[in-house]
């Protein structure tokens, strides 16, 4: 029965083409038209309540866990209150775009053009942000030196404190907010929170009623009893705390869906699921609940996480290709007292994922010196399936990194992962973890062109000027990010989600106003591998070997290495000079020095919520569009070609001395400073992990990764031949899941350029 149910639920996910649903947008707009003149946070709460009360709901065939954003699986919902312009621009092209296409009916296009767009044009979050950006910031953005994110959708990249709701019940949270609102009647946050919390209870009860209606006409007795159980559980968890694992999973999912309705945001992540759900699991086991039933419920929950796909603009989809929803689950790690936190549920999460093998949940295993070898082997066994899941995080460097940011020791030990690889303290952090991307290679390109006709140019002057430009553009990036930050505070508060983040209720403040215990702004430095390779080659060929002049090299770059002589030069630049990823100190130290400078510059800035900026280094899929904005570079890379993937990964094909050399190169970076998260991709031949010997070798490799104090690593374990065949015959590979960046996606749903990038990554053996 378990396999039949899971196969059915997986099949249902992909029966229909991806569509755009206007339902949330219409209900949100309907409410906004009725609340003119009221405080924004009250309007937001009432709009969310209107959605929860009126949105169409369903319980799909075979489901044990109820709750959907849309009637049809994997439908995209839009937020014109954030940015109505890109939607209007792409109405007639979104179905055919190369990355993440969606179908929208002609009727819905008409509704958008005539009803939704006219209302939101001129009063959206995007309008607010664009009106405040200085020309110098806009120019830097147009040059692709940095990109500001979160300007066209609600704010996610956060982990709610779901353990509080699960252990106390939703009714407890409602009563607490009632008391606070009564004692502080002037506080709009408490009023707004109560509006949306009570609407949440009504929304859950709608599912209880629907399940009863379905059960009344269900002829199959087994399915009828399942529907009545959904009704019972839904009715209970709308008010009371859950007691069983099934009840806890159901309330957990309802809260996630409601948070999605409120903000329609990416990466409202899950946190340490094996920790806050363990007591429910243990209680069921002690009561004699069959383990197979618990597994079935858990696998149903995993499948639900794949129902939520995010619709982005065509440009944004190139940066976040393949619908990275961000249901990231952290497993293992440390207890508050610093011992291993691995438990039976940690194993079960890996085991049940092996049965599902979908892009979500984005499992992550936390590694430390106390990890049990059987759990490490189970982790490798799961990696061997080739979906790129789980990814690995290193407590031995991440916990000290958080301590460096003023996080308490107990909170640091409790860290989890937001979205792709962003690091956060669950239920206590509003980190704006993906607020901006900073293109370090573009800064180098602009610097080199400045010196083209300089007669006294030196390598040292180039490095100094690169750092000066980093300083200048980081200040502009921080200013722009703070404008986006304020925009979310003024236009898009999230009172429901804020109820599940410390210390919002005690402060009486939304997270967007600074209610969280920890307030960061996370920005990513991208291009360090190409920058290291380029500057090393430049240093050698121009200043040490003196084979060509600096001006001649710049001429070659300006011409994109066109012509026979310049092509010979390009081949020499690629093959003659060592590259980052091969454990050459001279190359690696260049990147380490500049990335450290960037990190230290970023952390100087503060945000409007009283927190600091925290640097990271990961790309999502932005290494392709950011590369398209950079001309030819001295590492032999041609204009518009992609940058190195991941963030800390070597340039594709340039890591020639094996996977251990890659680790050694990355370990020379100051990985304690990238406390917003970093990313290392490594690709292995499937033969490497065959048999118990393969598991043992990979487990030892992960222990070496841990001892080298690298934050993160993830793997594609699939042959290039298989991927090439999938490009040619996509109909045969509908279920093929691969690692893109800090997330996995269906290979056939990726654009050609991303597919080629994954194929080109060096395939290592151990």
Commentary on this structure:
With 766 residues, the protein is α/β, with parallel strands linked by helices. The protein is built from 33 helices and 19 strands. The strands form 6 sheets. A 6-stranded mixed beta sheet has the order 6-7-8-16-15-19. Strand 6 (328-332), helix 17 (344-356) and strand 7 (362-367) form a beta-alpha-beta unit. Helix 2 (23-34) crosses helix 3 (40-54), helix 9 (170-183) packs antiparallel against helix 10 and helix 21 packs across helix 22 (459-491). It is globular and about 85 Å long. The chain starts with a helix and ends with a strand. The model has no long low-confidence stretch (mean pLDDT 95). One of its GO terms (cellular component) is cytosol. Residues 4-638 form the PFL domain. This is Formate C-acetyltransferase.
Short description, anyone?
The protein has 766 residues and is of the alpha/beta class. 51% of the residues lie in helices and 9% in strands.
């Amino acid at each position: 029965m378990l396999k039949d149910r899971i196969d059915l639920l997986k099949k249902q996910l992909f029966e229909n083409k991806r569509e755009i649903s206007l339902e949330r947008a219409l209900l949100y707009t309907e409410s906004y038209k009725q609340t003119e003149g009221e405080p924004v946070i009250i309007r937001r709460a009432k709009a969310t309540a209107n959605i929860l009360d009126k949105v169409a709901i369903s319980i799909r065939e075979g489901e044990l866990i109820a709750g959907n954003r849309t009637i049809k699986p994997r439908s995209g919902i839009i937020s014109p209150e954030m940015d109505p312009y890109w939607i209007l621009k792409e109405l007639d092209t979104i179905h055919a775009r190369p990355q993440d296409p969606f179908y929208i009916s002609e009727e819905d296009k008409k509704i958008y053009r005539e009803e939704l767009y006219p209302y939101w044009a001129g009063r959206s979050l995007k309008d607010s942000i664009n009106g405040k950006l200085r020309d110098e910031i806009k120019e830097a953005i147009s040059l692709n030196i940095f990109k500001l994110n979160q300007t066209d959708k609600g704010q996610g990249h956060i982990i709610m404190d779901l353990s509080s709701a699960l252990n106390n019940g939703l009714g407890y949270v409602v009563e607490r907010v009632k008391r606070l609102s009564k004692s502080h009647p002037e506080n709009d946050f408490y009023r707004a929170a109560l509006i949306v919390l009570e609407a949440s209870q009504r929304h859950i009860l709608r599912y209880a009623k629907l399940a009863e209606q379905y059960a009344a006409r269900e002829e199959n007795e087994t399915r009828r009893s399942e529907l009545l159980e959904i009704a019972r559980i839904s009715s209970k968890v709308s008010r009371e705390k859950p007691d069983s694992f099934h009840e806890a999973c159901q309330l957990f999912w309802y809260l996630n869906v409601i948070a999605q309705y409120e903000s329609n945001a990416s990466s409202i992540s899950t946190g340490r699921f094996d920790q806050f759900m363990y007591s429910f699991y243990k209680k069921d086991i002690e009561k004699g609940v069959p383990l197979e039933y618990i597994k079935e419920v858990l696998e149903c929950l995993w499948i639900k996480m794949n129902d939520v796909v995010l619709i982005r603009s065509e440009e944004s989809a190139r940066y976040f290709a393949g619908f990275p929803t961000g249901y990231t689950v952290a497993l293992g790690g440390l207890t508050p007292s610093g011992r291993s936190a691995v438990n039976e549920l940690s194993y079960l999460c890996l085991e049940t994922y092996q049965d599902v093998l979908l892009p979500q949940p984005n499992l992550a295993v936390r590694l430390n010196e106390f990890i049990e070898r059987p759990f490490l082997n189970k982790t490798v066994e799961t990696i061997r399936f080739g979906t790129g899941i789980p990814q690995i995080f290193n407590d031995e460097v991440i916990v000290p990194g958080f301590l460096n940011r003023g996080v308490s020791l107990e909170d640091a030990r409790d860290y989890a992962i937001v979205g792709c690889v962003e690091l956060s303290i669950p239920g206590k952090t509003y980190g704006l973890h993906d607020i901006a991307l900073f293109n370090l290679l573009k800064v180098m390109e602009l610097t080199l062109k400045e010196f083209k006709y300089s007669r006294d140019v030196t390598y040292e002057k180039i490095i100094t000027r690169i750092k000066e430009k980093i300083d200048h553009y980081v200040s502009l990036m921080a200013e722009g990010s703070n404008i986006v930050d304020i925009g979310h505070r003024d236009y898009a508060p999230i009172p429901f989600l804020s109820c599940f983040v410390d210390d919002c209720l005690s402060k009486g403040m939304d997270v967007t106003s600074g209610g969280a215990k920890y307030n960061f702004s996370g920005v990513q430095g991208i291009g360090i591998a190409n920058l290291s390779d380029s500057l090393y080659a430049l240093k050698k060929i121009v200043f040490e070997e003196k084979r060509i002049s600096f001006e001649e090299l710049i001429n070659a770059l300006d011409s994109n290495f066109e012509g026979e002589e310049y092509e010979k030069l390009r081949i020499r630049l690629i093959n003659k000079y060592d590259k980052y990823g091969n454990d050459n100190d001279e190359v690696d130290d260049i990147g380490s020095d500049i990335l450290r400078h960037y990190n230290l510059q970023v952390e100087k800035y503060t945000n409007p919520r009283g927190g600091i900026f925290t640097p990271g280094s990961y790309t999502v899929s932005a290494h392709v569009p950011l590369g398209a904005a950079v001309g030819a570079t001295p590492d032999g890379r041609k204009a518009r070609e992609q940058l190195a993937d991941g963030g800390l990964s070597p340039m594709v094909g340039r890591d020639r001395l094996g996977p251990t050399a890659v680790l050694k190169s990355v370990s020379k970076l100051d990985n304690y400073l990238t406390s917003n998260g970093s990313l290392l991709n490594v690709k292995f031949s499937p033969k490497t992990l065959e048999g118990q010997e393969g598991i043992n070798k990979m487990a030892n490799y992960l222990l070496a990764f841990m001892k080298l104090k690298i934050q993160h690593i993830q793997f594609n374990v699939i042959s290039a031949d298989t991927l090439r065949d999938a490009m040619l015959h996509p109909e045969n590979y509908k279920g093929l899941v691969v690692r893109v960046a800090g997330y996995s996606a269906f290979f056939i749903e990726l654009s050609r350029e991303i597919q080629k990038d994954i194929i080109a990554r060096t395939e290592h053996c151990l």
